Amino acid sequence: MPAAGGNHPIETPVRCAPLKIGTTTATKDEGETDETSARIASSGWAKWAPLNAAAIGAHLFGGGGLLAVNAHRVAAQKGVAASTTAKTVVTAAALTATAYARVLGKKIELASSHDPEDHEKTAQHPVNLDQARRQLAYVQWAVPALTGCLVMLNALHGEQQRPAEQLHGMWERARSATPLIP
C-alpha cells in the first residue's frame, strides 16, 4: 500500500550517517579540538601497540617456520622462490609502514600534548603537525593495502602447494636447469 504522498515506502530514500571506522576518525566526535582528538587517538593506538607487536611477532615466527619446512620446495619448484621473495619484500614494506605510522603518531601525540616534558621534546625536535597528519593519513591506508597484497600472495602460495602444481613446477625447474630434457 502506498505511503502518504503517493510514494512507496521502499522508494523513500533513507539518509544514513557515513560509517566511521578507526580510532582516529571516531575521536573527531569526542575531541573538541584537533589537539584533543590527537591525544585521544594516540591513547587508543598506544593501547593496541602490544597486541600489534604480538601479531607481528607471530607472523614472522610462523612465516620463518613455514619457510624452513618448505625450503626444499622453494629451491626446487619453479615460481615459488619468486613468490616467496615478493612476499618477503611486501612483509618488509608492511612492517616499515607500520613502524613509520607509529613514529608519526608519536610525533602528533607529543606535538598536541599539554605535558611540559612533551613540549621540551618537541622544542628539541620541531614537528610540522599538518605535514605529519597528512603523511599519517597516507600511511594508514598503505598498511591495509600491503596486508591485502600479503593475503593475495598467501593464496598464490596455497595454489602452488597443490600436488599437480608441485609436480609441474619441479618438472619446469628441472627442464630449465637442464636443456637436454624435452
Report on this model:
The protein has 182 residues and is an all-alpha fold. It is elongated, with a radius of gyration of 25 Å. Helix 2 packs antiparallel against helix 4 and helix 4 packs antiparallel against helix 6. It has 7 helices and no strands. The longest helix has 36 residues.
Helices, strands, pairings?
Layout: H1 23-30, H2 34-69, H3 71-76, H4 80-111, H5 116-124, H6 129-160, H7 163-177
Please describe the structure with a list of short key phrases separated by commas or semicolons.
single chain, 182 residues, mainly alpha, 7 helices, elongated, disordered N terminus
Mean pLDDT: 77
Strand content: under 5%
Oligomer: single chain
Helix % is over 70%
- Low-pLDDT regions: 1-21
Query: First CA to last CA: what distance?
Result: 74 Å
Class by helix and strand content?
mainly alpha
Q: Helical region count?
A: 7
Q: How would you characterize the largest beta sheet? A: none
Order of helices and strands: HHHHHHH
Shape descriptor reads elongated
Gyration radius from CA atoms, angstroms = 25 Å
Total number of β-strand segments? 0
